[in-house]
Structure formats: C-alpha cells, structure tokens
Predict the structure.
Amino acid sequence: MPERVLVVDDEKDICKVLAKILELSGYEVTTAYSGTEALAAVKKQNPELVFLDFMMPDLTGLDVLRGIKSYSEDIYVVMVTGRGSEEVAASVMKAGAADYIIKPFAKDQILTVARDTIRIRAAEITARKLRDELAMFNRDLEKKVDERTRELVETQERLVHQQNLASLGEMSGGMAHEIRNPLNSISLFSQLMLDELDEGDPKKEYLERIIGDVERIEAIVKNLNLFSRRIKRDKVPLRLDVPLDSSIRMLYTQFEGRDIKLDVDVEDGLPEVLASNEEMEEVFSHLLINAMHAIGRGGRIEVSMRVLTEHPKAGEPPENPDNPRKYVEVSVKDDGMGISAENIGKVFIPFFTTKTDWEGTGLGLSVVHRVITDSRGVIDVDSEEGKGTTFVFRLPVLESGAGFV
C-alpha cells in the first residue's frame, strides 16, 4: 500500500503543487490549510509523513508539530519554511521534526526528502520494536534466570541436607548397634533388682525411673535404626487409610485421656501408593503424637486424605497431557501452639526439639521426612506461632504395573 502523506500549508497553491508532486510519485496525499485542520487530519488519516508549513495563521508550525508528536511518535514531520536560519532549524529539530526544507524547493528535493524520511522512519520503527522485544526478552530471561537460580540454590540446599542426613544416618546406625548391648544389660539388672526389693522400699522408685529412661532410650535407638535405614522394609501397593487407622487405634486412649477431638476425612475410592505399611504407621504415629504434644489438653486434630492431580506450571508443557501425574495428599493439622518462624526450618533436622518435658526424642519428624522421601514423596510444614501447625505430604499414586526401579 502507498505511504500516506499529509501536506499542510495555508498557501493553497503551494499546498496543491506539493501534493501533486507527491501523488505523481505514488504517495496517497491529503491536504490541510491550517493547523487545526492538520491536527484533525492526523487523527483521521494517521499518515506516515507530514510536510508542515512553519508559518500559519491559527497555530504555529511548532505548535502543530508538538501536537502531532504527542499523538504519535510514529508520524514523521518535515518542516517547510521560508526562513532559512539556523535558529529555526534548531527549534524544529529540537521539537521533533525529522527534517526541514527551505522555500523555494525543487521537485527532486521534495521527493528525495520524502523517500529518505520514510525509509529512516521504517528503519527506526523496526529498531524500536526490536529494542522493545529485546527488552522484554531480557526481562523474561532475567526472571527465568532468577527462578532457575532459586531452584538451583534450593536443590543444592536439599542435596547438602540429604548428604548430612546420610552421614548422620551411617553414624546413628553404628551408635544404635553399640548402645543396644549395654542398654539391655542395664534393663535386665534393673528388673532383677526391682524384683528383689520389698514393697515400699524407696529404692524401687529409683529403679522404676531407670527402667522408664531405658525404655525411652530404646525408642530413640529404634528411631536411629529406622533413620539410618538399617531396618529394610518392603514397599507394597498400599492404601494410606490402612496405616492411618492402625495408628489412630494405637493412640486412641491417649487422645481420650487428653480430651483431644480427632476429625478424619478420607476421600472415597482412595488409590494405592507404593510404600511400607509399617513405615507409614510410624509416619502417622509421629505426626499425630507431635500434634498431640503441641495441643496439650483439649483442642482438635484434623486429618484429611485426598487425590491430587498435579498440573504443569504456567508456561511449562505437561509431561503427559492425557494422563497428568496424580498423588495422594495427606494433611495433619492441629490447633496447638504452632512453630516460631525461627524454628520452622529446623523441624526435620535430627535431634532438634523444643520439648522440655521428655516427651520427644527429636527424631520423630526426621524419621517422617526420611520415610516420605524414600517413598518418592514430598513433605512440607506450614505453621504460625499461636495458631497451629499443618504437615502436608504427597506420595505418587501407584500406576498400573508401575513400581520402583
């Protein structure tokens, strides 16, 4: 399509001659005889190029030029003037004119200026679009780099954490083995001494405390063995409500004794995951005991279990759009004391505990984390001090014929 050109001059003869020259060269030309008409024609025709007279009766050429440039930077203006001074040239170029010509002008001069200005216009608009696209690309690239950097940092932190846990697991397994022998002797001799004492002997209380602490150490050793993976348990197709029911039955008396209300919401038709029933019983027991200790007396624990379909993140194609990955999501929520912002990042660290009443060993949540990650799941915690805590973990649904490699 021919480029649109607007010719503006209050001297009609000059305006018509200039328009004729441009029309004969293939341009689509519109004319205007005043500044007001020129601004109206610009909004109506949206020309690529305007030849604009510097001196007009209603508005000055500079006023019209500024009006045109405020309307669109893509309209290029060539100022036509009979005053060929450097001051005029400087003022029109400063105001945004692409070029200027001085009256009287030749036909070839007009056509050269028109051709060169339109060519420069096309090049500059293309360059501006490319700059805008490059700026947008750079912003997107910076955003993606930031996201990937954050993901790499998080992955590195997880790897370091896993390496630390693995090293600690090896050490813990050896410690558990060495502790069990003397622990067994302490327990046996304490029980023998207890049987030999008469009823009412004050030493019986001491021995009972020793035996109680031995049992507590035995629980720690058991968790150490699980934490170090010395107890190898086979993973089988499993509905997670089965180990949940077992854990609840085992802890039911404690819930009643503490006047704790337990709400369980399990979605119908729950699919199977690949996990160890014994390990998942330990997971639910640790999470429920942890919630019970956080609540104290009274309060509520809510357990929910549902199927979750994971959709890809925005901008990422799905791995299998016809069969998106599915998970069983489990949530254990309590309305207890909550976890401080300072401590929430430490809850899965072995031996970390804020309990001071000998109720915890500091290994329960570490064991939970180990079991879930070994089952190719993920676990997270959300808590606010004074407003309760929610542990959420997800395990992949067992697909037909699938298993661990």
Summary: The two ends are 65 Å apart (CA to CA). Residues 312-318, 401-405 have pLDDT under 50 and may be disordered. The longest strand covers residues 300-309.
